[in-house]
Known about the structure:
The chain is mainly alpha-helical. It has helices spanning 11-26, 35-42, 56-68, 89-93, 97-109, 114-120, 130-141, 170-183, 188-195, 197-228; strands at 33-34, 72-74, 84-87, 148-150, 162-164.
Amino acid sequence: MPITQPIVLSPTQARVLGALVEKEVTTPDYYPLSLNALVNACNQSTNREPVMRLDDEEVRLALRRLEDHGLAGRARGADGRVTKFEHWLGEAFNFTRAETALICVLLLRGPQTPGELRNRTDRLHRFDEIGDVLGGLQKLMEREPSLVAVLPRQPGTKESRYAHLLSGTVESAIATENATVRREPIHYAAQTSVDDPAQEDRIAKLEATVAELRQEIVALRQKIDDLFGD
């Protein structure tokens, strides 16, 4: 059923939903996901900001709340001894593939610039131009209720950042972003990567390679789960 009322997801619920959406596209052979595979997907150290360390019970509780919202739950019609889980984002919002990719990456990595979104959605949907990203964001902003908002530009930055509103208002998004910044100390090397496009590109490629390796490990664990159960 389409969702017409505002939703307020907790950080854990947002992470679980984003992980399900991502894995449907990147590891379709192993989707829907077992609980073990979903926990691993939520706790990845790459393509996640902030990195979380969720346990089975936290993910189960998040799934129950997502099911209450009509956003995710047990896979319908799934066979086998292992319980599998899936998202229902398409039914809830009737997203295009571009909109799905943008929401997914915003759920997994928090507020981002259009340039960051274009690079980070590449595994989910290819945006040929930055204008395509902006067009997708605009459509999400124009929904009723709005699902994305532009944040006030930070001092010294050239691009505005965009945030999803599935976890509350713009003020909530800013508070979450600020809390994340306070938890994560800034290192000189990290600051250099922001000012050096070539280095940032190398880091992005390295992150993508590591992410692919981790996905292969998750896929192998998924296969073991299917064979022997949780």
